[in-house]
Structures are given as C-alpha cells and as structure tokens.
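Data availability (excerpt). The following record was deposited with the supplementary files.
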Amino acid sequence: MTHAPTALTVLTTTDSPAKAQELARGAVEARLAACAQISGPVTSVYHWQGAIETTEEWQVVLKTTEARYEALEAHLLAAHDYETPEILAAPVVRASAAYVKWIASETATTP
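Predicted structure:
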C-alpha cells in the first residue's frame, strides 16, 4: 500500500495586497505551492519591539506537501520584507485523495 503525500496549509501575512500577490505568485510559479488564496485585510495585534502594535495585513494561505515545505519556507523568507515573517504550517488531517494528488503533482520537482 502506498501512502499519499502529506498535504500542508502554510500561512503567511504581509502589509499590502500587492506584496501578498507577489508572495503567492512567486511560490506557485516556483512549484513550491500548488495554489494560494489571499484574503484581507485582517487586523493583526501583536507585541513588537516592546510595544503592542495593531496593523492591517493580508493573509496568504498556500497548499503544499511536507516534502516541499523547507523549500517553500526558504522562498518565503527570501521574498518577504518582514524582519520576522509569520510562516505557519499545519498538516491537512482530511482531504479528498484527488485534491492531495493534485497538490503533489503541482509541487513535484519534475512536473
């Protein structure tokens, strides 16, 4: 029995819709993510450099595989202009087999 690849959703945020579009498109073009959804604006409240900040941001949710996560994270860190960007990955617990197969085929290193 073969195991299906583990799908992940990866979340990052940025401070403009244009930057969100660049992060999403760059990851998909590089085949590090099969797709990405951009939503926003959202309001983020957080501690930063000794103060509580409130900022308008846009979320980018990317679909990838566990095998491609490290390359995706490296790409996001290089492309992002935040000093410490939010990059969170969560495993997809349940999904249609066809969708997971599509994610894996779109992020394969040799399409």
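Summary of structural features: Helices lie at 17-29, 69-79, 97-106.
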